[in-house]
């Protein structure tokens, strides 16, 4: 199969539009039109992973972290990023990264984190802003059902646990066509008053072109009147971090030991113990110090993340237990999830979980 066919499946798992603006996701290296010989899934596409891909006849690497994050002005092999790029190009290996596109997915990195800890009743900690748009259009009653259903099929009208959502109102539309017009109702130069239905649907902004294509293909008017607005509503099913509950409350020490065991961590840094049980837990895989206040506002008893600095621990402010479980550790099961997803979607094809440990942090 072509690499671009695999990319379509990956974007189903983690739409690139979900990624943060600062991130570098998608196909980083290689030609999407090439035939794929095999897929190697890893956490970080380092040199040893490139060697593994070569040994296992995989010319397409799917990694979590993007090996190319900022612009490269020279590729001379002077650092680990440039060496990876050179070796991948030399061996015709393509590299694709998912990173925050999967971080922000409701079934992505943080849901995987929650599932590893056995958390229930989970929801997004920081819902994504400026991601919902609204389409408003007008049509004759005879066209309304067909048009509305086509918009639903294109992805409009999904709100939380509900789909096919719309608001419809009736009114009078007016128009008069010029000499170049071909009106559906009435004649040229005739002033027409027509009963119309106003259809309003919301959609995720990355679907706009697909929504408009459905609108134009299924509308009966020669000139389609429509409006698109950006909404300030938070998207409750897309965003960073997650908060959930333990089935049974644990003491702080038992909770920290459980995390250490479940996430296979060699060491956990944490804030002062507060001598209270832990039930409600917030998580954010990777670097998450920016979300400490969000975890407090969510009423969490504990917040698990990584890459905390000295002064971040003060921000716990005796309101919750703050624990740094390690960057790699907080995301360690992500590559397993990617492999499982791909195997369900792509049958009878080599999809291999990397055996290389790319965690750069070591413990005594």
From TrEMBL:
Pfam families: DUF34_NIF3 (PF01784). GO terms for molecular function: metal ion binding. It comes from the Bacteria. Gene3D superfamilies: 3.30.70.120, NIF3 (NGG1p interacting factor 3)-like. Keywords: Metal-binding. InterPro entries: DUF34/NIF3, DUF34/NIF3_bac, DUF34/NIF3_sf, N-reg_PII/ATP_PRibTrfase_C. The keyword Metal-binding applies. A divalent metal cation binds at residues 65, 103, 327, 331. GO terms for cellular component: cytoplasm. Homohexamer. Belongs to the GTP cyclohydrolase I type 2/NIF3 family. This is GTP cyclohydrolase 1 type 2 homolog. It comes from Flavobacterium noncentrifugens. The lineage of its organism: Bacteria, Pseudomonadati, Bacteroidota, Flavobacteriia, Flavobacteriales.
